[in-house]
Design a protein that fits this description.
By secondary structure, this protein is mainly alpha-helical. The protein contains nine helices and no strands. Helix 1 packs across helix 6 and helix 2 packs across helix 4. It is rod-shaped.
């Protein structure tokens, strides 16, 4: 939790230190604590630097020995605030990543929709279209349901071997095409007694 009063007391102790580092941190702390919410958001990166390094790890020295001798309790307050800021900063980075990913997905969706329109307008097919259309043809998922039977009949007349090359084990549609081609080797009247 945000320990407003503890941080205010800590700032007073740091301000009374003879060390310039403590005095500078005290000024940043007091400026942040006395600011409204909008100003705090604007100055958060400066406030964060009191507690964290550029690598977002807790500073080895949050206060000088003089200030810690003046009140040993300030070290605990500063360490707790540093941990709170790390957690908060992780949430901020996660939210920024999520927003960037959302924007990227929207961009990809727009590009893919435009790509589909351009393909349709030019009557073009890409490699994925060829796989899907072939699978639909072999499985009879075309407007003319008899097409699959005709394709299998034509293949049966001249297809004696199936050489599988470059089949992608991560592409289920390609494997379904291979299965559809090979099914005819072992089923019904297409099955031959002699080995193919």
């Amino acid at each position: 939790a945000f320990d407003y009063q503890g941080l205010l007391n800590t700032a007073d102790i740091l301000k009374s230190s003879k060390k310039i580092t403590d005095q500078n941190n005290a000024a940043l702390l007091l400026e942040f604590l006395k600011a409204d919410t909008d100003t705090r958001l604007l100055n958060f990166n400066d406030y964060k630097k009191i507690f964290l390094t550029n690598d977002d790890t807790v500073r080895a020295k949050l206060a000088t020995q003089d200030s810690i001798k003046a009140d040993a309790g300030i070290l605990d307050i500063l360490e707790k605030e540093a941990q709170r800021i790390i957690t908060l900063w992780d949430h901020v980075k996660t939210a920024k990543s999520a927003a960037l990913l959302r924007d990227l997905l929207r961009l990809c969706e727009t590009i893919l929709l435009k790509y589909e329109v351009l393909k349709r307008q030019s009557g073009a097919l890409d490699f994925d279209d060829l796989i899907i259309k072939t699978l639909e043809l072999l499985k009879g998922k075309t407007p003319n349901q008899n097409t699959a039977s005709w394709v299998h009949y034509k293949l049966d007349q001249g297809l004696w071997h199936v050489l599988i090359d470059e089949a992608q084990d991560t592409n289920p549609e390609q494997w379904q095409i291979i299965e559809a081609l090979c099914d005819d080797f072992f089923n019904g009247e297409a099955a031959h007694e002699k080995l193919r």
